[in-house]
Write a structure and sequence with these properties.
about 220 residues, mainly beta, Immunoglobulin-like, four-stranded mixed β-sheet
Length: about 220
């Protein structure tokens, strides 16, 4: 008899709890004017976050020569893709390498690298500039050479003037299955055959070639 009464009480409590839960769900945690469950409106995080404009700085030239006021580099500042011409403040990280004239053009002072900063409405953007001593002439000291598979060969490039900047040089191999070459002009033999190594000056757009034979 007691167990049956306990069962009835349990069922009654379950039904009451279910009814209260249903009422809370339907009334968003309220019974009448009383809030029994704290609820918060779910907001879209993206909508609540402030949208920060994107500022970009692009340089007309990656390289400019030292001590040459005729060859300079312009700068283009854009905010969210739209060019800005007024209200931009430019700054050079090293004025001994590159200066900014009254027309906002970059003028090379001495060989080296510097960072240019543009500030507009409290937003900043940066770009790197390299001031160089341009290469006038370049030649390989040897036009033909032989190296063995697995061995390295440092290409010897003679340039004028002697203090010319080498950062503008790019090396390439006509067949990397036969030989590879890195950015410093070191050739590595891969397989027997003949290959041509080219050095290209990205500033003057001139190149020189050398033929190599790779042997076992």
């Amino acid at each position: 008899m007691k167990s049956r009464r306990a069962l009835v009480v349990s069922i009654a409590i379950f039904i009451i709890c279910a009814i209260i839960a249903l009422v809370l769900i339907l009334n968003k945690g309220h019974i009448g004017s009383i809030a029994l469950v704290a609820t918060e409106a779910v907001e879209d995080k993206k909508a609540s976050e402030p949208i920060i404009p994107k500022l970009t700085l692009e340089l007309e030239n990656e390289y400019i020569p030292a001590n040459n006021k005729k060859i300079t580099s312009g700068m283009v500042v854009s905010i969210d893709g739209e060019e800005v011409t007024d209200g931009v403040v430019f700054e050079s990280s090293d004025t001994s390498i590159v200066k900014i004239d009254k027309n906002d053009r970059l003028i090379g002072q001495s060989a080296g690298k510097a960072k240019i900063k543009a500030t507009y409405d409290g937003i900043e953007a940066t770009a790197d500039i390299t001031v160089i001593v341009p290469i006038k002439t370049m030649n390989f000291s040897s036009t033909n050479s032989t190296i063995k598979v697995g061995k390295d060969l440092q290409m010897k490039l003679q340039v004028t003037p002697s203090n010319a900047t080498m950062d503008t040089l790019e090396y390439s191999s006509s067949d990397e299955k036969i030989a590879t070459v890195n950015s410093n002009g070191i050739v590595t033999g891969v397989a027997p055959g003949k290959v041509t190594i080219t050095v290209f000056d990205t500033y003057t757009e001139t190149e020189k070639k050398v033929n190599l034979t790779i042997k076992k």
